[in-house]
């Protein structure tokens, strides 16, 4: 088999250059990471109970739950400015989309006012548009919080870089069967990882932990989703 020829260098120009600058800016943020596992048994049952033509992905439910929790925890729905923290009224979720040559983050606007089905459809449309290069510049603007999903990989934990000037980002990892304690017995349950990284200048550890705890409870209860 012939060897595959690859370029000796990748220029930091265009999209790759913009990503490099944004990641460097985000890396300078004094950040803290917190993680939790979520039992998605009830969420999978909710999804399975929906008619097949109306069934949405687990990611759509996560987006819906995140948006609702951000209404209750506005300190994470914010932007860092030079001399203050701007708490934002709208919940606009950035959705990280992997491309062959980079990463783009189109925005789901007013996500807290949309159903999981609506968010799922819009997320698919935005992802397809980002990969095809057909989205307008406005589709990537005014995000207030970002969600990045590695659920289709074998990764169980990671610490995503904050999409500055936003103050927090949530990483989602795969659903895997794991042993869990239920009362005095051990059961096998589908567990999903949630990994929150936040700017400690804007949010302290305990309020961030409350947000992540509420998100876990909302997903495990599978209510209002």
Automatic annotation (TrEMBL):
Cofactors named for this entry: (R)-lipoate
Q: Does the keyword Cytoplasm apply?
A: no
One GO term in the molecular function aspect is: acetyltransferase activity
Parts forming coiled coils: none
Domain of life per record? Bacteria
Keywords noted in UniProt: Acyltransferase, Transferase
Quote the protein name from its UniProt record.
2-oxo acid dehydrogenase subunit E2
Query: Which species does this protein come from?
Result: Massilia cellulosiltytica
